[in-house]
Amino acid sequence: MQVLLDENTLREGVDRLAQQIEERYRGKKLTLVGVLLGSVVFLADLMRRLTIPYGVAMISSRQMATEDNRPGHLVIHADSLMPEVKGRHVLIIDDIYDTGETLWELIPQFDEFNVSSVHSAVLLRKKGRQRVPVAPDFVGFEIPDVYVVGYGMDYRGYYRNLPYIASLSPEEMANFRENDR
Ligand SMILES: O=P(O)(O)OC[C@H]1O[C@H](OP(=O)(O)OP(=O)(O)O)[C@H](O)[C@@H]1O
C-alpha cells in the first residue's frame, strides 16, 4: 500500500473545493447530495468547511439487473434520505470519478425532481478511465489509474477508515485475504 494523498494534502484540497463551491453558490439555494457509501468522509469534511447555508441529502443507488444478468442501470433507491429538492441547486458529492458511469446515470434522474440545476463535486478524478461524456464540475485531485482506498473508499469493504488515501497494487489486491484482517 502506498500513500498517495496524506491528511494535510486532503485538508488543503477540501478547503480549496469549499472555497470554489462557496463562490459558485453564494446566495443560491444549495443542497449537497452525497452518494452513499464512499462519499461520507469527504462529505462530512466538506460540510464543516462550507460557511454558506445549504441543505444535505444522501442517496444510495441500486444497480438494476438486466434479463441476462449483465450490470444494468443505477437507479436512486426509493428510500433514499432525500428531502424536497424542487427549485434547489443540487450538488452531487462523490468520493471518486472513475469511469464516470455513476454520475452519468444519476444526473438525469434529478430532472424528475424539478431542481434548478444539477452539478457534481468529486474529491478524486482518475485519469484515463472516463467512459461517458459527462465530467465532474469540481475536482479536488486528479490521480493516476490506480485502485485507491481510504478516506471513505474501500476494497472489499475494508480500509474506509484510513485518514489518508493510498493505492493498492494489483498484487496486493490479488493476495488480499479477509481472514488476515
Ligand atoms: O465513476 P464510476 O466508475 O462510476 O465509479 C465511481 C463510483 O464508484 C464508487 O462507488 P461504489 O459502487 O464502489 O460504492 P461505495 O461508494 O458504496 O463504495 C464511488 O463511491 C463512486 O460512486
Write the layout of secondary structure elements.
Elements: E1 2-5, H1 7-25, E2 30-35, H2 40-49, E3 55-59, E4 61-65, E5 71-76, E6 89-97, H3 101-106, E7 117-126, E8 138-143, E9 147-149, E10 165-168, H4 170-174
Parallel strand pairs: 2-3, 2-6, 6-7, 7-8
Antiparallel strand pairs: 1-10, 4-5, 9-10
Helix pairs in contact: 1-2
The chain binds 1-O-pyrophosphono-5-O-phosphono-alpha-D-ribofuranose.
1-O-pyrophosphono-5-O-phosphono-alpha-D-ribofuranose binds at residues 35, 37-38, 94-102, 154.
Could you explain how this protein is built, in words?
With 181 residues, the protein is α/β, with parallel strands linked by helices. The protein has helices spanning 7-25, 40-49, 101-106, 170-174, and strands spanning 2-5, 30-35, 55-59, 61-65, 71-76, 89-97, 117-126, 138-143, 147-149, 165-168. Helix 1 (7-25) packs across helix 2 (40-49). The chain is globular and about 50 Å long. The two termini are 14 Å apart. It binds 1-O-pyrophosphono-5-O-phosphono-alpha-D-ribofuranose (PRP). The site of 1-O-pyrophosphono-5-O-phosphono-alpha-D-ribofuranose has 13 residues, from strand 6 and helix 3. Residues 10-156 form the Phosphoribosyltransferase domain. GO terms for molecular function: guanine phosphoribosyltransferase activity; hypoxanthine phosphoribosyltransferase activity; magnesium ion binding.
